[in-house]
Design a protein that fits this description.
Blueprint (H helix, E strand, L loop, with lengths): L18 H8 L10 H4 L1 H12 L4 E5 L8 E7 L2 E7 L5 E5 L14 E3 L3 E2 L6 E2 L5 E3 L18 E5 L2 E5 L8 H12 L7 E11 L3 H8 L5 H4 L21 H20 L7 E3 L7 E6 L30 E6 L3 E5 L4 E10 L2 E11 L10 H26 L15 H19 L3
Antiparallel strand pairs: 1-10, 2-3, 2-5, 3-4, 6-7, 7-8, 9-10, 11-17, 12-13, 13-14, 14-15, 15-16, 16-17
Length: 430
């Protein structure tokens, strides 16, 4: 029986559960932002990589990035480079991007296409299933079938790609997939193509990036492009006489649209699991304002060719959040996905990917400029806000401040999940 490439074994990192980290976790005050070392300390950052990014399902890309056999993408998570490739049978596979000879990195580009996987150092060659098929000068006793590429756990959730570097990944991914799948499936992300992808580096801790994403308290005063298509009352408001009428009207719109969309076979009701499980997630389909079609500068579709079998342009926006590092917006005409990867205590990669129907023609059905205008502007504004927060956390005057229970509940959910998962890592002694 041929030897199968094994899942890589991770070794515990010495000192990850330091006295500083334990003290910070013990003193975390619910309903408040985190203590400054969570954003500044290299020691905490290393623990983040060990307990969060090496032991949970991390969103890394979309299936349309690798549409054909031999297409690949690479993603770096800390010191680990992961290669995701589509094999000749159209299956997606993930491997450590490391040659089994002397450890050379195999694929150096973020994205490309290949026939076989060839090490640039000594030309050891692997097929698209990770088997070593060629290695010169290794002698008669050398067993190629014991030197295949090391696998990485990979899951494809209706076109959203997740990896896990742990020996045993969290088992609750199946439940998340079962519950989220019906929401995502009608948009048929697998039948899309990548129209644009933009990487930015935020000079801030990854947790500031996620906290900023998990609230829209800041949206009205900072995101004029994004708020064109968003109902203001959808951001979260403290109930009171001053906004009772507007809130009631918004709630009625949501009720009516949900009923219509559910009747069309589009699940819309909120699922809230951000801080109640290992693989945290949340989703809801909400109406969009004005034209109600898409997150564009005029709230109309950015692509004339709609996704899936859609004929109605005004299907609102299906928002999906996954812990620890992603958020997504699914609309009738396109999908926007965001992946957050820590680069250091004060540097974070934010990768934004826009997908449209695979048969849509650029310059005819859509323009990249119009498709990307809202989120290019919003990402740049959020980058500035994250960097302001990072600078503030370094001040001697910084102390954890209270979250609004109305507009920052999802920030608290993120921080609660993060602290719980870090405590679990520390208590396991790994």
């Amino acid at each position: 029986m041929p030897h199968q490439p094994s899942i890589v074994t991770l070794q515990p990192r010495a000192g990850a559960a330091s006295a500083l980290l334990k003290a910070l976790l013990e003193q975390r005050r619910p309903g408040h932002s985190l203590d400054a070392p969570f954003y500044l300390s290299d020691e905490v950052f290393q623990a983040d990589m060990e307990y969060i990014f090496r032991r949970h399902w991390v969103f890394v890309g979309v299936a349309p990035q690798v549409p054909e056999p031999g297409d690949y993408v690479t993603v770096d998570v800390g010191a680990d480079s992961v290669l995701i490739v589509r094999d000749d049978d159209m299956n997606l596979r993930a491997f450590h991007n490391v040659c089994r000879h002397r450890g050379s990195r195999l694929c150096q580009e973020h994205q490309g296409s290949l026939g076989n996987i060839v090490c640039p150092y000594h030309q050891w060659t692997y097929d698209l299933e990770g088997r070593l098929i060629h290695a010169d000068h290794m002698g008669q006793a050398f067993l190629r079938d014991q030197h295949g590429l090391k696998k990485v756990h990979l899951r494809n959730l209706e076109g959203l790609l997740f990896i896990c570097l742990a020996d045993e990944p969290p088992a609750d991914f199946d439940e998340m997939a079962q519950r989220l799948g019906p929401y995502l499936a009608p948009h048929r992300l697998e039948d899309c193509k990548v129209a644009a992808q933009v990487d930015i580096i935020e000079k801030g801790n990854w947790k500031f990036t996620l906290e900023n994403n998990r609230e829209c308290y800041h949206c009205v005063s900072n995101h004029p492009e994004l708020t064109v298509s968003l109902y203001e009352h959808g951001f979260g408001y403290q109930p009171g006489p001053q906004n009772a009428e507007g809130l009631a009207r918004f709630e009625q719109i949501v009720k009516e649209r949900h009923a219509r969309w559910e009747a069309m076979g589009l699940p819309s009701a909120q699922i809230e699991e951000l801080d109640s499980r290992i693989t945290g997630f949340r989703t809801i389909r909400l109406p969009l304002d004005r034209a109600g079609q898409s997150q564009t500068l005029n709230a109309e579709v950015a692509c004339r060719k709609l996704l899936g079998d859609f004929s109605d342009k005004a299907l609102g926006g299906l928002s999906v959040w996954t812990q620890p590092n992603s958020w997504h917006h699914f609309m009738s005409d396109h999908v926007v996905s965001f992946s957050t990867i820590p680069l250091g205590p004060d540097r974070t990669l934010v990768r934004t990917t826009w997908c449209v129907h695979k048969d849509a023609v650029e310059g005819v059905d859509y323009t990249v400029e119009n498709l990307t205008a809202v989120w290019n502007a919003t990402n740049d504004q959020d980058r500035h806000l994250v960097e302001l927060a990072q600078a503030g956390a370094a001040s001697s005057a910084y102390e954890p401040g209270p979250y609004s229970p109305y507009t920052e509940a999802l920030v608290e959910a993120f921080c609660t999940w993060y602290v719980d998962r870090m405590r679990a890592g520390v208590s396991a002694g790994r």
